[in-house]
Amino acid sequence: MTLNIAHRGFSGKYPENTLLAFRKAVEIKADGIELDVQLTKDNVPVIIHDEMVDRTTNSFGLVKNFTYKEIKRLNAGGNERIPSLEEFLELAHDSNIFVNLELKNSIFPYEGLEDIVLNLLEKYSISKEKLILSSFNHNSMMKIKEMDSSIKTGLLYESCLYNPYNYLKTTTASALHPCFASLLQNIDETKDLIEKNVEINTYTVNDVVYMKALIDLGVNGIITNYPDRLKELL
């Protein structure tokens, strides 16, 4: 069965990566939530997608240049605030929802991010059966596996990978997290991956036509801004 994973929460209708968007995803009974984590200047993990706060808040500048106290003052839409990872994990623990946590370290390395994230996941007793960490930084995902081989990891990529099955095996990762277009552009390869039981969670699918095509292919998870649309199809 294909999982319905709310991209940055229910971001199609509510401010992305906010507690409101996460709560609304839980309310409509999405199977999971995808979210992004970065570190503030004082090494507090916070939930925001862009490396800069310009697009989603009433301020400007790099996330890594704000202290946690400073970043919590920003308006992330509708008077919502940028949540800390701890605030999200409290909600995730209580709701028992599947968590797809993306480490946003493909531009800035955020030294210690892997350690900080793993420690918090343990603190809040997040079930490893309902958890996957992902990143465009594949070295980071290999580091996660070295630190805890039982944690599932997903390799994010936008364009097509050459021989993705072999690449997945060399990285020790658990799943592929491709842009949906790369799957539809290479149907035979996608079918082959699925036949080989490769876990595929694809992003960001908002059109019901593409949702249906991917469900029919049998991907494991669809990451969408509109979990309500996907839920209706499923």
Could you characterize what this model shows?
This protein is of the alpha/beta class. Helix content is 36%, strand content 19%. The protein has one domain: Alpha-Beta Barrel (TIM Barrel), CATH 3.20.20.190. The chain has helices spanning 19-27, 68-71, 85-95, 113-123, 138-147, 164-171, 180-185, 187-195, 208-217, 227-233, and strands at 3-7, 32-39, 45-47, 98-103, 131-135, 153-157, 175-178, 199-202, 221-224. An eight-stranded parallel β-barrel has the order 1-2-4-5-6-7-8-9, surrounded by four helices. Helix 4 (113-123) links the parallel strand 4 (98-103) and strand 5 (131-135). Helix 1 (19-27) runs parallel beside helix 3. The N and C termini lie close together (9 Å). It comes from Inconstantimicrobium mannanitabidum. This is Glycerophosphoryl diester phosphodiesterase.
Helix content: 25-40%
Superfamily (CATH H level) name? Phosphatidylinositol (PI) phosphodiesterase
Give me the strand/helix succession.
EHEEHHEHEHEHEHHEHEH
- The CATH class label is Alpha Beta
> Which quaternary structure do these chains form?
single chain
Distance between the termini: 9 Å
Give a short account of the largest sheet.
Answer: 8 strands, parallel, barrel
Contiguous runs where pLDDT drops below 50 for at least 5 residues: none
By CATH, the topology is TIM Barrel
Radius of gyration over all CA atoms, rounded: 17 Å
Shape: globular
Question: Helix/strand/pairing class, anyone?
Answer: alpha/beta
CATH architecture, by name, is Alpha-Beta Barrel
- Output mean pLDDT: 97
Strand content: 15-25%
User: How many domains, in number, for the residues?
Assistant: 1
Number of strands: 9
Strand order of the largest sheet: 1-2-4-5-6-7-8-9
Give the number of helices.
10
